[in-house]
Amino acid sequence: xxxxxxxxxxxxxxxxxxxxxxxxxxxxxxxxxxxxxxxxxxxxxxxxxxxxxxxxxxxxxxxxxxxxxxxxxxxxxxxxxxxxxxxxxxxxxxxxxxxxxxxxxxxxxxxxxxxxxxxxxxxxxxxxxxxxxxxxxxxxxxxxxxxxxxxxxxxxxxxxxxxxxxxxxxxxxxxxxxxxxxxxxxxxxxxxxxxxxxxxxxxxxxxxxxx
Length: 211
Ligand code: GAR
Fold this sequence. Notes:
Order of helices and strands: EHEHEHEHEHEEHEE
Largest sheet: 4 strands, parallel
Number of helices: 6
Distance between the termini: 37 Å
Number of strands: 9
Helix content: 25-40%
Low-confidence stretches: none
Bound molecules: glycinamide ribonucleotide
């Protein structure tokens, strides 16, 4: 790993399929970056195994007593571990806790997230289930910057998928997952390559400035 290489830190609570898509894109050079550290708030999460299988450093860090966010002490430990690992960009990939100010200020403007709906529709938990129950005909996934709200940061990229008449929440989530595995590496690659143009909430991938 060279000193100048762009370094990614991943946070995850689940199976880690988005992590795998990003790790493979890093390994193939599609994302010009390396994965410096994977942290999980779930001791038995698949994402830890998927990282270790690839020889990448991964560890469980206890989240503390809350269910939807990290306890303040834990949040400082997460931030410290990522700073020590020299991380340039924090990439939650199915991390099921809201990040708060000590963490957000340590990585201001350097945290992105993938969400399984077309934001601003259906923020929060189980977004695919919300979209299915609402009866929308098109949904998808969104990569966005993380700010202090819930799934409210500036949007970097979105990819649509159809909702079919015979879909269940599970089949719909599977289709969204497929879109996530394309969109997330694409957005992370653009950030690592310095190709993101940001003007407030307006974000573009490419060399042309956004109006
Ligand atoms: C993904 O669908 C991701 O969008 C979602 O969790 C899943 C994780 O899957 N994230 C959220 O809902 C965040 N609020 P994975 O562990 O296989 O990548």
